[in-house]
UniProtKB/TrEMBL annotation:
It comes from the Bacteria. PROSITE patterns: PDH_ADH. Residues 13-290 form the Prephenate/arogenate dehydrogenase domain. This is Prephenate dehydrogenase. Keywords: Oxidoreductase. GO terms for biological process: tyrosine biosynthetic process. NCBIfam families: PRK06545.2-3, PRK06545.2-4.
Length: 369
């Protein structure tokens, strides 16, 4: 919420979106919610019609004069589309939302394209399922939006792209293309591969083994449901930094495997313990709620699998003046209840436990970091 009001757009004029899939259509929905004029174009007529039917924007016409163009196409055609848009609309600012920034920029520079009004950007947001049907106006809220400017970028152009991010509820962050690609290799691209490799072990696993799967394995493999066609392009375009991290990871895996081959050998248990401890340290550095590296206490509450129980639980927490910092629900296979893991401030953990138990809730476990 700003002084301008919740629906006042910072970006004025017509915004042209090329690519009406998940990201492009989500940008369209969010901008239209602020009253912006959004026009859409997509190489797929059916995808375009679907995005328009869902309200992400209107069809582009020859009379459109966009002030801002958002290119939301697969990585292997980003350079082609950016070049086309810059030539077709020389007065507009062009940005793209591809997850790799350096390779498209190199291609454009090699072609001699005038990049004065081009600013690469990347919202760190997405869903496992793509397409206009999965688009959401709130997809970018609270998410980082990397903006890759250079020394020749006009201040007004930079302000326009950052205004786009702010209109969508994202947080603009300036980075170089090189720093961006190394960063997303670490926090996005390699995790995708690791999740896929782990989930791949389930393909031929016995059904009996998979029945034991709990929330931990679901958490670590959730992104393995992503589209292979898109990820082949992303990983190929950012191969070098991804390979560097995979090489380091493979060395760590080999060290742990060697330790477990002879767990009674001198130093073997320490190797395993140091691996787990190092993971603890890494998790501690991940930004938490409101961007803080803050740890919360948690309690796990047993919730009957019947209508209204979650609502009652949250109502009781509200009555106890306990703010829910985070929440996760784990279903128990074959059992008529679920386990609600609730993160709270450590200072209120004891009162939360006492208050919930007095209201008839069963606490399965608690932790306090």
């Amino acid at each position: 919420m700003t002084d301008e009001g919740p629906l006042t757009p910072r970006v004025t004029g017509t915004v042209r979106i090329v690519g009406a899939g998940l990201l492009g259509a989500s940008v369209g929905h969010a901008l239209r919610a602020r009253g912006a004029d959004v026009v859409l174009e997509d190489a797929s007529p059916s995808q375009l019609r679907l995005a328009i039917d869902y309200g992400a924007g209107r069809a582009a016409t020859a009379d459109d004069a966009p002030t801002l163009i958002v290119v939301a196409v697969p990585p292997d055609v980003v350079a082609d589309v950016v070049e086309r848009e810059l030539r077709a609309f020389p007065d507009a600012v062009v940005t793209d939302v591809a997850s790799v920034k350096l390779e498209p920029l190199r291609e454009l520079v090699e072609r001699g394209v005038n990049l004065t009004h081009y600013i690469g950007s990347h919202p760190l947001a997405g869903r496992e399922r793509g397409g206009a049907i999965s688009a959401r106006a709130d997809l970018f809220i609270g998410r980082p939006w990397v903006v890759c400017r250079d020394g020749k970028t006009p201040a007004s152009d930079l302000a326009l792209v950052e205004a786009l991010a702010l209109d969508l509820g994202a947080t603009p962050i300036e980075m170089t293309p090189e720093d961006h690609d190394r960063s997303v290799a670490l926090v996005s691209h390699v995790p995708q591969l690791v999740a896929s490799l782990l989930a791949g072990q389930f393909a031929d696993a016995p059904d009996g083994s998979l029945r034991l799967a709990g929330q931990g394995v679901r958490d670590t493999t959730r992104i393995a449901a992503s589209a292979p066609e898109l990820w082949v392009q992303i990983l190929a375009a950012n191969a070098a930094p991804v390979v560097d991290i995979l090489d380091a990871l493979s060395q760590d895996l080999a060290a742990v495997a060697d330790a477990l081959r002879a767990p009674e050998a001198v130093g073997a248990r320490r190797e395993v313990a140091d691996t787990i401890r190092r993971g603890n340290e890494g998790v501690e550095r991940l930004p938490g709620k409101h961007g803080q590296n803050r740890r919360f206490a948690s309690l796990v509450v047993m919730v009957d699998d019947t209508a209204g129980q979650l609502g009652r639980l949250f109502g009781d927490l509200g009555a106890l003046a306990v703010n829910v910092e985070d929440f996760r629900l784990e279903h128990s296979p074959g059992a008529p209840f679920g386990l609600a893991e609730i993160a709270v401030a450590p200072a209120v953990l004891r009162d939360a436990i006492t208050g919930l138990e007095e209201r008839g809730w069963k606490i399965a476990s608690t932790t306090n970091d």
